[in-house]
Amino acid sequence: MGATGELSASDNDWTLGIFDTKAQASGTHEAWYKSNHHGTFATTWHSTYANGNKHNTFQIVISEAIGGDMGEGNNVCFCYGDMQWGPGDVHVQSSNNSDHAHIDFSGGTYNNAPSDNSLDHKTCCFHADKLKELGTSADFASLCHARGTEAGSNGDPHFKTSKNEHFEYHGQCDLLLTKDPDFANGLGIDVHIRTKVVRHWSYIKNAVIGIGNDILEIEGSALDFDSKTHYWINYESQGELTEFAGFPVKMFSQQGTAVTKNRIEIDLDSVYSGQKIILSTYKEFVKVSFENASEESFGNSVGMLGDFNTGKTLARDGVTVLDDFSELGHEWQILPSDKHLFHESSAPQFPDRCIDPEDPRGDHRRRLDESSIDEEEAEAACAGLTDELDRKDCVYDILATRQDLEMAGAY
């Protein structure tokens, strides 16, 4: 695979050229791309080497906007998956008096260039203009950070453990996602989600997080052109929010579009390097992510997400493994002994048990038949996701909820 992303320069302008994938006759090469009206383009490659037992997965994201998910000041991200093969080192190269720079898999050894394996599961983000300044002496690794573990829950409730195991629970109640009284040197953390049943499935309607003495809740919105982030800070609607429990907070809101995607980032870097908790919304769907979570930060946590170190979905006794996820959901319903964090109560509350949908596991084929979107369209909409299980969850959500293809934006 000679996949090369080029930045071609003139005196005043740098333009990112599209990657070239040069298939080898005995290998297989797949590519997906997606763009949107916000000026963002993403393309993903999965390539199998000649003998068929080594794979590379790679994604590039380009945006007209600066910052956001890419990080402050950036408009390009290179996202590496499992890099199992490559003829040479990945590197930054400058040539022709610095009017050309590229990052590739195509061989050669350059100053301080990381090897293929060192880029596994890392994201390298930058502003296109800055590559002109790097030259052959650049340490490309300085642009990159490990994605680490991202556990959490989202949308039509998909739960992802620290071991990247995905499962669903469809029911309506308040659930304890995770808690640890010793989090952040004894501040403690509690994260709860509130789910709502719709026909044969459910979704996360609200999420709330408590750290120390502070409480932050977020809710989605089904209204078109509603770019407002709906939140409560210490039970005050839309209160001032620049820090939370001593941690810096950033808010991002998509403006001027019929479908809005907003998020609140809690930066844990002062205690846990490179880690964040992200509360985000897409339409009425809410997502909770623990970015770059580690054993140090969540190793002692308990809840719906299971044991951080093993990924086992444990009952409240900390011993019993629950592989029936309906049973797991009922086990982690908020009890009177748990903290009650939401700004208002909603049925059911214990001792009333979680409300299961009529068909908890879902008659999948019937829902596909009822959908106005076919499976191929859904797969194309979700193709930009690098994680195979995320892609499957995304396709399922589009079809099962009978939403439009932009439902992929929830990921």
TrEMBL record:
Region (Disordered): 346-375
UniProt biased composition (Basic and acidic residues): 353-370
Domain of life (superkingdom): Eukaryota
Protein name: VWFD domain-containing protein
Species for this entry: Cylindrotheca closterium
